[in-house]
Amino acid sequence: MARSLYDWLWQHEFWLPPGITWQDMQESEDVHYPQPRDLLLSIPFALILVAIRCAFERAIALPLSSKLGVKDKQRPKAQPIPVLETFYSTRCKNPEEASPFFCFPFELISLAKRCDLPVRKVERWFRCRRNTDRPSLSKKFCEACWRFTFYMVSFFTGLAVLYDKPWLWDHRECWTGYPQQPLQPSLFWYYMLELSFYWSLVFTLPFDVKRKDFKEQIVHHAATIFLISFSYCANYIRIGTLVLVIHDASDCFLEPTKIFNYMKWKKTCDSLFMIFSAVFLISRLVIFPYTVLYNTYYYSMEIFQPFFGYYFVNALLIILQLLHVFWSCLIIHMVYKFILQGTMEKDMRSDTEESDEDEEREKMKKKEKNGITYFSNVTSNDYMQRNGSEPLNNRTHLTNGHVKER
């Protein structure tokens, strides 16, 4: 069974253009081609990168954060309440999201009754508990320092590897002699460096700072790993190196923007953000479609006929481009706010700390959207009566959902 699956997976029709078989890709003493087994090296290399990252953050980034004045905010701990802690750990971190209808907090009221507490106090307990679990500023700083260091190394490594390669300047050279393009040692190690890094990001995903685009990040990492792996096996290395360099270019400006934001260097942060925005939008929405998508979709067809690998690689590249468009919309929105307000808005992807003011603003938005008002400081009509208030069912309701006092 396993042998049959192996033979089916490695059919040359999947990986190579029509008329080319694996026999045509046999290595010799002077000529080396990519071998799928080489990809296994990326796993131990990824673990080595994780170890290097831990040492870097502990020995360099963390002391640097203290010297640069990055201070963690002291967060009050939530009062131990077993019922709420059990709900938080086993069901949901935000009971409002667990309600069947977001317009009315059934779960909050139920928990408040069980604990004999006002709903408002239960809301504050969950907000305090969520803030306790959020990563500290120093942790964010250390993570940004590590990624900035790697992206700088990988970007300039890519430039050093590619500056004398003909396909960097003439994109049709990506397909000259394909797929029988010998693998150069510099390209092999550059590929292993990038693939190992993305594997290391997957390994540390549960421990890294989680942002609002967490699912998109998972899709991005998966698509990138599949793209690097498949392009290596099918010897799409020339086009793959262009993809890697283009991606690293904007990331070199993103991470220092975060670093200066954590340091509270507002003007430097704003300036770097504008530079990052320009580089990202140009590289991902202009250079990437022309240099990569147009190249793989049209230029490759001048050399060979379509086959499975052609469609698969283009599908992965389109997934990446859709993610580029998604992130570009977020960036354009932030730039628009920056131009209007003169200050950079908080990163909409960030998992920021909650406050009473943030909560009230969010509730007002929901009220305006749904036309529904609920009373979060009560648990039931009985509770209201005990506190001298009139029950809800004795009040007149207007057509817009608001309550009119008698």
From TrEMBL:
<feature type="compositionally biased region" description="Polar residues">
    <location>
        <begin position="373"/>
        <end position="399"/>
    </location>
</feature>
<dbReference type="GO" id="GO:0005789">
    <property type="term" value="C:endoplasmic reticulum membrane"/>
</dbReference>
<feature type="transmembrane region" description="Helical">
    <location>
        <begin position="311"/>
        <end position="336"/>
    </location>
</feature>
<dbReference type="GO" id="GO:0046513">
    <property type="term" value="P:ceramide biosynthetic process"/>
</dbReference>
<comment type="pathway">
    <text>Lipid metabolism; sphingolipid metabolism.</text>
</comment>
<dbReference type="GO" id="GO:0003677">
    <property type="term" value="F:DNA binding"/>
</dbReference>
<comment type="pathway">
    <text>Sphingolipid metabolism.</text>
</comment>
<keyword id="KW-0808">Transferase</keyword>
<protein>
    <submittedName>
        <fullName>CERS4 synthase</fullName>
    </submittedName>
</protein>
<dbReference type="InterPro" id="IPR009057">
    <property type="entry name" value="Homeodomain-like_sf"/>
</dbReference>
<dbReference type="GO" id="GO:0050291">
    <property type="term" value="F:sphingosine N-acyltransferase activity"/>
</dbReference>
<keyword id="KW-1133">Transmembrane helix</keyword>
<keyword id="KW-0444">Lipid biosynthesis</keyword>
<feature type="region of interest" description="Disordered">
    <location>
        <begin position="349"/>
        <end position="406"/>
    </location>
</feature>
<feature type="transmembrane region" description="Helical">
    <location>
        <begin position="188"/>
        <end position="207"/>
    </location>
</feature>
<dbReference type="Pfam" id="PF03798">
    <property type="entry name" value="TRAM_LAG1_CLN8"/>
</dbReference>
<keyword id="KW-0472">Membrane</keyword>
<dbReference type="InterPro" id="IPR006634">
    <property type="entry name" value="TLC-dom"/>
</dbReference>
<dbReference type="InterPro" id="IPR016439">
    <property type="entry name" value="Lag1/Lac1-like"/>
</dbReference>
<keyword id="KW-0256">Endoplasmic reticulum</keyword>
<feature type="domain" description="TLC">
    <location>
        <begin position="139"/>
        <end position="340"/>
    </location>
</feature>
<feature type="transmembrane region" description="Helical">
    <location>
        <begin position="272"/>
        <end position="291"/>
    </location>
</feature>
<feature type="transmembrane region" description="Helical">
    <location>
        <begin position="144"/>
        <end position="163"/>
    </location>
</feature>
<dbReference type="InterPro" id="IPR001356">
    <property type="entry name" value="HD"/>
</dbReference>
<keyword id="KW-0443">Lipid metabolism</keyword>
<keyword id="KW-0812">Transmembrane</keyword>
